[in-house]
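Re: that backbone. Tokens:
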């Protein structure tokens, strides 16, 4: 076992000692401003990241930094109330450690969320987009010696996001009275927001939404054999960059994300009940 794996099992063993024999089957990672979804989880055990050995601590605005184990949709889930970002100065090993810890704890499904700029002109602030594919401008988290116990050297990424869960997500959204968009997610390093020229470029190559996270966790999850459902909450209209008064503001992003919590809760709860 190399040093990377020692850190994963160190964190997992500590979490096991705190959760009383619970066995989560689904993992959730909540992005900027979306942490309030965790309030809907029942029978909670809350573990602050700072208490978990070998585990990073969230420093980004809107990321509360708690690991929550409880019941959602009738199933045991483990939820990261805040993620780790490359722009915080963390390595890709640190950015994705939570996913590998979830794998050790027995997680079979991962539900990821993020706040995004909407590149698609049909998207408006408050819309939720199911991620059907992605374009990655972040370092690949699998670079380096392969962790053979977790997955193969060259994992297939033809379908990183589970098609069955996307189909079911559309049904759940319709049942709850909202439209679930669908599109391609683009991730850059951040922390600066994109320039107008970059927005145009990302649209040109097929992007529908853009942000600074998520893809590394998805790649590691698929490497581990975990099925993934991802959603982007559209928190600013990046397709309106030609307006003279266009500006990106992190507080406005968090406020916009907060308006989507009820939709996100209905979607994730319904999907977790389904699996």
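Recovered sequence:
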């Amino acid at each position: 076992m190399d040093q990377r794996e020692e850190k994963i099992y160190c964190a997992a063993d500590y979490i096991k000692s705190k959760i009383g024999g619970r066995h989560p089957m689904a993992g959730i990672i909540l992005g900027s401003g979306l942490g309030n979804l965790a309030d809907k989880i029942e029978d909670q055990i809350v573990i602050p990241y700072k208490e978990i050995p070998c585990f990073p601590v969230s420093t980004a605005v809107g990321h509360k930094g708690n690991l929550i184990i409880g019941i959602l949709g009738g199933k045991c889930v483990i939820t990261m109330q805040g993620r780790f970002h490359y722009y915080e100065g963390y390595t890709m090993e640190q950015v994705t450690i939570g996913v590998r810890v979830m794998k050790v704890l027995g997680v079979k499904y991962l539900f990821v969320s993020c706040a995004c700029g909407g590149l698609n002109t049909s998207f408006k602030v408050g819309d939720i987009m199911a991620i059907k594919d992605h374009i990655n401008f972040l370092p690949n988290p699998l670079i380096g010696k392969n962790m053979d116990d977790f997955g193969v050297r060259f994992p297939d990424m033809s379908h990183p996001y589970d098609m069955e869960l996307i189909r079911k997500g559309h049904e759940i959204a319709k049942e709850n009275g909202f439209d679930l968009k669908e599109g391609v997610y683009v991730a850059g390093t951040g922390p600066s927001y994109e320039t107008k020229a970059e927005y145009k470029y990302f649209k040109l190559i097929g992007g529908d939404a853009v942000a600074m996270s998520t893809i590394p966790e998805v790649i590691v999850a698929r490497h581990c054999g975990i099925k993934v459902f991802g959603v982007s909450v559209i928190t600013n209209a990046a397709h309106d960059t030609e307006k003279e008064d266009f500006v990106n503001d992190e507080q406005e992003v968090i406020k916009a994300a907060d308006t989507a919590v009820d939709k996100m809760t209905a979607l994730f709860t319904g999907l977790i009940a389904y699996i």
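Strands lie at 26-30, 42-48, 66-72, 75-81, 109-118, 128-136, 180-187, 209-211, 227-236. Residues 3-274 form a domain with the Rossmann fold fold (CATH 3.40.50.1580).
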